[in-house]
Amino acid sequence: MFKFIKGHLESITGIEIYPMISLLIFFTFFVALFWWVFSAKKDYINKVSKIPLD
Q1: 3-52, pLDDT tens digit by residue?
Q2: CA distance 51 to 36
Q3: Contact between residue 15 and residue 9 where contact means Cβ atoms under 8 Å apart
Q4: Alpha helices, DSSP H only, in 1-54?
Q5: How far apart are CA 10 and CA 35, in angstroms?
Q6: What pLDDT, on a 0 to 100 scale, did the predictor assign at position 6?
Q7: Signed CA dihedral, 48, 50, 52, 54: sign only
Q8: Distance of alpha carbon 50 from alpha carbon 54, whole angstroms
Q9: Torsion angle (degrees, nearest 10) of CA 33, 39, 44, 48
Q10: How far apart are CA 30 and CA 36, in angstroms?
Q11: 15 to each of 6, 21, 45, how far by Cα in Å?
Q12: Which residues of 18-51 are buried (b: 16+ CB within 10 A; e: fewer)?
């Protein structure tokens, strides 16, 4: 199964850019998430954390 997929993908020209784009999107998302977690205000975090209990 994997040989079939690998052989098929190797025949497509210009496909080598897609893994790099997906890695860039993945990295950017988690850097932005990391930045948001450390820059969020404590009051907002406390308010949102109490929503299920209200």
Answers
A1: 777 777 778 788 788 889 999 999 999 999 999 989 989 998 889 889 98
A2: 20
A3: yes
A4: 2-10, 17-39, 42-49
A5: 37
A6: 75
A7: negative
A8: 6
A9: 20
A10: 10
A11: 12, 11, 42
A12: eeeeeeeeeeeeeeeeeeeeeeeeeeeeeeeeee
Instruction: Say what the pTM is.
Output: 0.60
Pairwise CA distance, residues 28 & 23, whole Å: 8
Collapsing DSSP to helix, strand or coil, 1 comes out as coil
Q: Write out the two tokens for 27.
A: 């990295």
With tokens 């969020």, the residue in question is: 40
> What are the angstrom distances between the C-alpha of 54 and each of 11, 28, 44, 46, 50?
57, 34, 15, 12, 6
